[in-house]
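User: Please predict structures.

Assistant: First:
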Amino acid sequence: MNILNINKCPLCGNSQFQKVMTCTDHYATGEKFDVEQCTHCHFLFTQRAPVEAEIGRYYESPDYISHSDTHKGLMNQIYHQVRRYMLARKARLVKHSSRLNEGSLLDIGTGTGYFSHFMAEKGWKVTAIEKSPQAREFAKKHFGLDVQPSEALSLQEEASFDVVTLWHVMEHLEHLNETWEILNRILKERGVLIVAVPNPNSFDAQKYKEMWAAYDTPRHLWHFTPSTMQQFGAKHGFILAEQHPMPFDAFYVSMLTEKYKKSRHPFLKGLLTGTEAWFASQAKKERSSSIIYVFRKK
């Protein structure tokens, strides 16, 4: 197996790292992966993960909800209920941040297509990209969406989108800096970039440490704190304009973590931690389990 051996920090270029923890792939294989940190800028990343061309088997499960749309199990049922609420909230955020009722939108990593379909129904001209053939087929069958494969991203025209969204996608992308460069190129001058990622500085991440389900190694290659996310934007010509907590994520992630821990009553224990995390994020949004970042071009 070919592995991604990171010898230079993608954020600052430093080559000195320290191991922070070792995480287990509880979801698919049981394999262990080190999470390392740059000693200069403190960016966190998964070391020695499979390269993009070979990581597919780590997603191969009927339970991978972003690709399969499974309703199996209580936690996945909760996921679907929360998603209905979040679709409307995401749409409001797009309208607020772009100051547009309609426009051109690119959704990268659209999964099974729910958000892209929701925005198209609201009158937006939507382009959707997704690497999973299974998810693309679902989106076409259920929503009539012609979702493009991941290779299509680099082929998008310059300054062609009012809004680009990545909902829990940036952490999966092997070619990180190249992606940021493309995002800057394809956004219009007054365009808006919206990125949602897990937050390793969150209350639940600090509580669960290496067991935190949102580390999700090796599928998650990068682990963005509010500071390193802002630095990546600045590096590629963006200004961080807004930052919004995603407090509901803590409930799902905590329940999943308790399941991985083989706890008795994982739903109840996860619910308790999620509630604690919700209060923590209300007091300080930088402690939210996941955060939505809204960027504008400099």
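Second:
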Amino acid sequence: MSRYDLAAKIATLDPQADAIQICHLLAGYEFPWDITRALELALLRTFCIPSVAALLDRTGEFHHHTQKRYDDTGIIVSELFKWGYEDPRGQAFLQRMNAIHQHFPIRNDDYLYVLSTFIYEPIRWCNRFGWRALSPVETHGIFHFWQAVGRQMGIKHIPDDYAEFEAYNQAYEQTHFHYTPANQRVADATRAMMVNWFPLPLRGMVNFGIPALLDPALLTALGWQAAPTVISRIATTALQQRSRLLRQLPPREVADFFVDQTIHSYPNGFDIADIGPPTMLDALNQKGRPNSN
């Protein structure tokens, strides 16, 4: 295979009819690391919406079970990318997510915004730091994938147009991004979790560098200080150098989905019945334990 064979294959697909296949190839083969990082950024952006942060702060999941909450979200998203929302396994995880969400009073507008971050943050990240830019087929495939997921979540008023939904994403941030202590508490807990992924000698440097790629509006809404300009330049340059290096490497032939890796909260593997807030697991599983991973 040549480096661009998968890109050429995706170019022959239909963005709407083949959205599942497009996202499978992007998340598992073309940009697995980049999409995971972009979705982490999307997570931080949702904390900038006070109504979202207040709910997360009130449940305590990002304070008491930060890693599990992160991992459960990553697992659900990864299972959807790996299997699609039409496959029985993908459907099971989508239904699990819906069952969890039903326990909380989440506004439709907040659902819409969070959904939009899952579309546009990976696109923006890959176009900025990926080893190649995404094509219109790929960007619209991502749009149609999450549009279909959103409809199965019962989200109302999802735009039918790519540009219209992106405009909604940008307008929602301009209107709703502002600082609250809850924003910062949830974000600080997540930042501490990310820092703890690294060996002890590196944690101070990682903590210092986390804001390096974040925009001023996000930093203000989280109550975080910007990284020094030199640190931001180093981080940007390092990611751009990484993209140039990846262009020279052979294409990935073995998938690298998030669920294919060792997951912090589930080092021995997971069952779909493990997914969800610990205090809700009995209620979520009362209808019977689903099939194992």
